[in-house]
Amino acid sequence: MEIRPLNPHTGAEVLGLDLNRAVCDSDRAAMNRAFVERSVLVIRDQALKPQQMLDAVGLFGSVFAQQNTKFAIADCPQIHYVSNQDRFPGGRRYIPGEGWHTDHSNAVRPPKATVLHAVSLPDKGGDTQYANMAAAYAALPSATKQRIASLMGIHVYQSSHSARKLMTLSEGDKERVPNAVLHPLVRTHPESGAKAIYLNPIRIEGILGLDHKVALPLLDELLEHATAERFQYRHVWRPGDLVMWDNRCLLHKANGDYDMGQVRYLYRVMLQGDVPR
Ligand SMILES: [Fe+2]
Fold it and tell me: Which of 26, 118, 179, 250 is least enclosed by beta carbons within 10 angstroms?
């Protein structure tokens, strides 16, 4: 097994590993280390069926129950699918993951990681972009760091300020999914100790104790700073990729920039995280 960095600050690829076979303790430890240091781990050349993917992600943590069970795979409901073939009730195509966000931040303990495995990809396009929120935090002016140090974001299932609309939850899912929770706007990574900006334009409704007139421009300003190209890693998918990223210190976004006549279909698993602090 070999692990190589993908750009100067974010991403590492793992070569020469077959997750359908047993993984030794030292390889497992090396991948967990690379995950914490590089935030995006790309394990190349895998061919995993749903149950095999579940077994493989057990190397990195325990499975988190995803929120909208509409997307659960019938024979393996802990795995959801990501597809460009679904439509909103009105007929408009639903492209999951468009717009910068971090997954399921309205949970009390949001998932530490999301794992996608490419089953079917378009010939080109459909990249996933990542923004490194720890690097973005480190580059903030100290006055901004002080200003946001103790602010709490209010996270809901669907922010009323978000341009991107999510699929509505079933009544059963609504009872299960928290709405709303408070998380710090600056969180400390429980494994690396690095501070990162923690916001989510799709789910953040406001900042506790601040008027929207103040909170929304502040969130916009932080988002614009953090998603500058110098903090990004852009993943160009290859068949067989299994990509795991760290929701605690990244934003990500999908791109619906490809031929929608082609099927883009991936399996998605999330791993349990801690209460953000
Ligand atoms: Fe996402």
Answer: 26
Give the SS3 label for residue 77: strand
Q: What is the pLDDT of residue 29?
A: 98
**From residue 42, how far is each of 39, 48, 117, 198, 235 by CA, in Å?**
10, 14, 10, 23, 9
Separation CA 100–CA 46 (nearest Å): 27
Gap from CA of 254 to ligand 1 centroid (Å): 8
Can you tell me whether residue 176 is helix, strand or coil? Answer: helix
Output the six-digit token pair for 275. 């209460």
Find the 103 Cα to ligand 1 centroid distance in Å: 5
Q: How far is the CA of 75 from the centre of ligand 1 (A)?
A: 22
- The CA angle 276-269-130, to the nearest 5 degrees, is 65
Give 138 Cα–ligand 1 centroid separation in angstroms. Answer: 24
Ligand 1 midpoint to CA 156 (Å): 15
**pLDDT at residue 139, rounded to an integer:** 98
Share of the chain above pLDDT 90, in %: 87
Rounded distance from Cα 29 to ligand 1 centre (Å): 26
The full length of the chain comes to: 277
Q: What is the mean pLDDT of residues 8-12?
A: 97
The predicted model gives 146-163 an average pLDDT of 94
Question: Residue 70 has which token pair?
Answer: 């509409």
CA of 84 to the centre of ligand 1 (A): 14
Tell me how far the alpha carbon of residue 14 lies from the centroid of ligand 1, in angstroms. 22
The two tokens of residue 49 are 């069926």
pLDDT the model gives residue 258: 96
Q: What is the pLDDT of residue 66?
A: 87
